[in-house]
Design brief:
This protein is mainly α. The chain is built from 18 helices and 2 strands. It has 2 domains: about 50 residues, no CATH class; about 290 residues, Methane Monooxygenase Hydroxylase, Chain G, domain 1. Helix content is about 60%, strand content about 0%. The chain has a two-stranded antiparallel sheet with strand order 1-2. A hairpin with a 2-residue loop joins strand 1 and strand 2. Helix 1 runs parallel beside helix 3, helix 5 runs antiparallel to helix 9 and helix 11 runs parallel beside helix 17. The longest helix has 28 residues.
Length: about 400
């Protein structure tokens, strides 16, 4: 299957001139080398944009400069990843009553397509060899291929529905995808390969959200609508498998290339990811073994709240339904998540041997403890009209 690479953001109108100029500066400057006075000016620009009128320019400036805010208490992981921009994009889709799953797939497609273009444009100009770059492109194209097969309905996939082609004609959507591309993905180092790492982390965050969203919808459908359950569990499984496809592409980073920029990422760590912990809560239930971790980061406190722990996990709902087809579909769909956790642990062993993780954990040892998910508890609440567990999470 040939990867589809349309959805070109260049077709839409550009950012306001001041925003485009700032985005260019942030994309070409290693943020770890940004002078303190410049970082302070960016924080002041953010405050001014927040206090100012709701113009297009101020909206984009808020997205571009939020990472530098001295006023906001933003966890380091979210300063690094810029996930507030993804949250903005998905909120815009919700305002237009667009399907969150399709919106997430389109954003993934746009980010991966841009990353492929970057790799092809800069092949052989950095530490990565031409051959290594070509292999990276092949693996990224495999991500696009898998995206094309993502289920959207009975006998309907992202490719067969021509979702990318149709999106190309939506000027608002194309412009919003351009905003995400230009207002996020800023490297902290001068290493080209950090692009791959950064966009992979962002892709995984989107997929954590899609897995969680589909899992919640599947849980609500059990015992009520078999066709809806079949669709949502298929979407759940597809997004879970995509995590492995993205991870396969990420492994084109050798340990040496990874260590070339790791120090610049500072204390940013995926252990701080709300989307990941909420995904596991929705799929498996509350993991008591992580209570200490949740306590170390104030923004993770909601994961352990009685309100969220009162919901039934997808696993408990599926295994308790008394329906072999429901249970077996869950088990098949969940298998890629187990594989992903094992690969994540393998990544830690290979890239962080005998090293402390960037989030202050014991690195690979921390990951190993949570590969297995047996025996986790969940509540009995099913309906989530308030969407407490389905919105994209960021700080």
């Amino acid at each position: 299957m040939n990867a589809v690479r349309s959805l070109a953001p260049a077709r839409s109108r550009e950012l306001p001139a001041s925003c485009a100029e700032l985005a260019d500066l942030l994309h070409r400057t290693p943020l770890a080398e940004l002078p303190e006075e410049e970082a302070l000016r960016l924080s002041e620009r953010h405050d001014a944009a927040v206090a100012g009128p709701d113009t297009d320019e101020n909206e984009i400036l808020r997205l571009l400069t939020r990472t530098f805010s001295r006023r906001l208490d933003i966890p380091e992981y979210y300063r690094y990843t810029g996930l507030h921009v993804t949250g903005w994009y998905l909120a815009r889709r919700e305002e237009r009553r667009e399907d969150p799953y399709e919106a997430g797939l389109l954003l993934l497609h746009a980010l991966v397509t841009d990353l492929i273009a970057l790799e092809e444009r800069e092949a052989g100009l950095h530490e990565t060899t031409v051959e290594e770059g070509a292999e990276r492109v092949r693996r990224l194209e495999a991500v696009l291929d898998h995206l094309g097969g993502s289920p959207l309905g009975p006998d309907r996939t992202m490719a067969s529905a021509e979702l990318v082609r149709l999106a190309d004609h939506d000027d608002v959507l194309v412009r919003d995808l351009l905003v995400v591309n230009r207002c996020s993905g800023f490297r902290r180092s001068d290493k080209h390969d950090e692009h791959m790492f950064m966009r992979s982390v962002q892709a995984c965050e989107i997929l954590f959200f899609l897995v969680r969203w589909a899992a919640r919808r599947a849980t609500e459908a059990i015992g009520r609508d078999r066709a809806a359950y079949a669709l949502r569990i298929g979407q759940f499984a597809s997004a879970a498998e995509l995590l492995n496809v993205v991870f396969h592409a990420l492994r084109t980073l050798t340990p040496e290339l990874f260590m070339g920029f790791r120090e610049a990422t500072g204390s940013a760590s995926a252990v701080q990811s709300l989307n990941y912990h909420l995904m596991e809560l929705v799929v498996y239930g509350y993991d008591e073994r992580k209570t200490e971790t949740y306590g170390r980061f104030a923004h993770l406190a909601p994961v352990g709240s009685p309100l969220l722990r009162g919901f039934a996990s997808l696993r408990d709902a599926a295994t308790g339904a008394g329906d072999a087809d429901v249970r077996e579909a869950f088990e098949a769909g969940e298998a890629p998540l187990h594989v992903w956790r094992g690969r994540h642990y393998g990544f830690g062993r290979r890239y962080l041997p005998e090293m402390t993780g960037s989030g202050g954990t014991e690195g690979a040892g921390y990951l190993k403890r949570f590969v297995g998910k047996a025996g986790l508890a969940s509540g009995d609440r099913i309906d989530d009209a308030e969407q407490l567990l389905t919105r994209f999470a960021f700080c």
